[in-house]
Amino acid sequence: MDIHIRALYTAALAVLVTAGPAVAVAHAQTDLDCSDFALQEDAQAEFNRDPSDPFRLDADNDGIACEVLPHTTSTAVTPTPVSSTALPQRGVDAGVGGSTGPAGFEVVGGVGLTVVAVGLVAGHVLLRRRRSAVGPRRP
């Protein structure tokens, strides 16, 4: 096989092998700790959402998350005005963070890599058929 074709196959394989696992890393959810919550009730709501406790919010396994955090009180709380420079602490709109799926450019990149891989395989098959129809190469 020609050295240029081998180099092309090796480069394409390297890109495919590297890009596949990188997609999972790009969409990994961030780890939450008790310090990410202002109130125990907020941490408890997150714990109740997924009782398997992937973030280890319930250290003593008693079903109560982040017991050291302050609780809401029954007294009226005066809201503090939000300054124009305030930033969300845990993602857009103070959500849990992470993303809901791949972005548009990631989908296009994945489709592009798939098309390249299919094209390389098809080209390889056609090249082998052509070479086998012509006969063996002589040195």
Short structural description:
The protein is an all-alpha fold and 139 residues long. It has helices at 3-26, 40-49, 104-134.
Outline the structure in words.
The protein is built from three helices and no strands. The chain is an all-alpha fold. Helix 1 packs antiparallel against helix 3. The longest helix has 31 residues, at 104-134. Mean pLDDT is 74; it is low at 91-96.
Question: Could you outline the blueprint of secondary structure elements for this entry?
Answer:
Blueprint lengths: L2 H24 L13 H10 L54 H31 L5
Based on the model shown, name its key terms:
mainly alpha; 3 helices; 139 residues; 0% strand
Order of helices and strands: HHH
Contiguous low-pLDDT stretches (5 residues minimum) are 91-96
Shape: rod-shaped
According to DSSP, the number of beta strands is 0
Give me the Rg, rounded.
27 Å
Residue share in helix:
40-55%
Q: Which class of secondary structure composition applies to the elements? A: mainly alpha
